[in-house]
Structures are given as C-alpha cells and as structure tokens.
Amino acid sequence: MQKDLALVIGDKVDITTDGRRFFKTAIGDIYHDGIVLIGPPIFRRTQMELKLFDEVYLVFYRDSGRYITQMRVVDFQIKDEVRYPLLEQMIIPEKDQRREVYRLPVGVETLLCEYVEGLELTLAMRDDVPESCIISEARTRDISVTGTSLLTSCECLLGEKYLLKMYLDGSRGKKAPFIICGTVMRSENSLKAGMYEIGLRFFGLSKTKSEFLSKYVLRQQQQMIVKRRLIEGE
C-alpha cells in the first residue's frame, strides 16, 4: 500500500453502510496488527449503531483525492460507558474516480423517471417520457457534463438507474425537456425534511446530447461571470 494511503491517528473519516448517510468520526488509535480505533460515528447528533462483525465503508481524504476502503468491526473498547469500535481493514483503499469537472451551481426543474432498458433509444426519436414513468419532481443543485446533484422526495439506492427530464431552458411547457440517463452514485438525507440529495452520473449520451450539455454548461458559466463582473463594477 502507498504510504500516503495508510490511515494515521487523527484522520477525519466518514463511515457508511449504504452510501446514503455518512457518519463522521476520526481515527483515535492504530495498533501493531493494523486494527484502528475510531470514535463513535455521528450523523446529525445520532450515533451509528454498530455490532460485532458489521462491515462498513470508511472514506478518508488526501491531497490526491477521496479514498474508500472496506472495514469490519472486530471488537469494542468501553471508555466512560461509551463504545469505541475497533475496525479491521478488509481491502486496499481505492480512489473515488469522480471526474474533476466544473459543476455549474444551478437549480433546474427536473422530473425523476423510471428507467426502462432500451427506452432511451425510443426517446432519441421523440425526446419525451411517458407520464406513467414519472416517479417524482426534483430540482438540481448543480450540473456538469458528467453528472448532476439534485434534491428529491424520492429515496434512491446506490446503483439505481433513472431517466431525467431536465427543463434547462425554463419551466415546463416552454421548451422540450432535455432527456438523459443517470446512475445513482451518492444518496443521503438532505437538511430539508423529507428530502434526499442524490448524485447521478450520466450514461448513454449521444454525441449530439453531449455537445449540447457541454455548450449549456459553458454558456451558463459565462453568463454567471458577466453578472458577477457587473455587480463588482457597481
């Protein structure tokens, strides 16, 4: 293992079992056999309930990026009636391969729709989604040429595929929506009650749609820069 990928005492880490909720904690100690002691993982004042032999994902950060490894609970230390989990590393840490691209901070009205294998080929012809496929309304927090982050009332699981109807040029009814497929790469509870923030990675883009999305992000970015300069010049 690369030296800079070894966990060290004091590392701030996130613990998750499902990729939706990330419980924050830190490395408290490391023993000769590689077992690490962590503090009780906390998510919004709620402590994570762990049992012996539970398997979890541990996320940590280095200058070169975000890394993920799988751990197993092998024991607990009790201090002042608080249980501190002892974790054994199961796999070599892997870098999260999320691409470093510009994410346009923009709220776009979006419909989250059921993904049906092969339906995107039909949509390439008529660029619409049947009403029966619509699952919930959503709104983007940001968009890039590779994916989007959005808020929705629908609880989504990692790896699930969806069709997105994105109204990039305004409200529904003004112009035809931009249809795109996405895979859920991140899903967690939002600070807004009853809402979830999910991150999706686009897939199956045609050359035409990829170019359209790239031009949209660039155009919106340029407009934001112009507006900022006007404000700064006032």
Brief description of this entry?
This protein has helices at 119-126, 207-233; strands spanning 12-16, 23-30, 36-38, 42-43, 46-47, 55-62, 65-79, 82-89, 94-95, 109-114, 134-143, 147-152, 161-166, 178-189, 196-203. It contains 2 helices and 15 strands.
Keywords, please?
single chain, 234 residues, mainly beta, Pnp Oxidase, Chain A, Thrombin, subunit H, 2 domains, 6-stranded antiparallel beta barrel, 2 helices, 15 strands, 43% strand
Describe this structure in words.
This protein has 234 residues and is mostly beta strands. It has 2 domains: 3-95, Pnp Oxidase, Chain A (Roll), CATH 2.30.110; 109-233, predicted glycosyltransferase like domains (Thrombin, subunit H), CATH 2.40.10. 15% of the residues lie in helices and 43% in strands. The chain has 2 helices and 15 strands. The strands form 3 sheets. The protein has a 6-stranded antiparallel β-barrel. The protein is elongated and about 60 Å long. The mean pLDDT is 83.
Helix-strand blueprint:
Blueprint: E1 12-16, E2 23-30, E3 36-38, E4 42-43, E5 46-47, E6 55-62, E7 65-79, E8 82-89, E9 94-95, E10 109-114, H1 119-126, E11 134-143, E12 147-152, E13 161-166, E14 178-189, E15 196-203, H2 207-233
Antiparallel strand pairs: 1-2, 1-6, 2-3, 3-8, 4-5, 6-7, 7-8, 7-9, 10-11, 10-13, 11-12, 12-15, 13-14, 14-15
CATH class of the largest domain: Mainly Beta
CATH superfamily of the largest domain: predicted glycosyltransferase like domains
Indicate the overall shape: elongated
Number of helices: 2
Topology-level CATH name of the largest domain: Thrombin, subunit H
Q: What fraction of the residues are assigned to beta strands by DSSP? A: 35-45%
Assign the CATH architecture of the largest domain: Beta Barrel
Instruction: Compute the average pLDDT.
Output: 83
Rg: 21 Å
List the domain count as a whole number: 2
Q: How are the strands of the largest sheet arranged?
A: 1-2-3-8-7-6
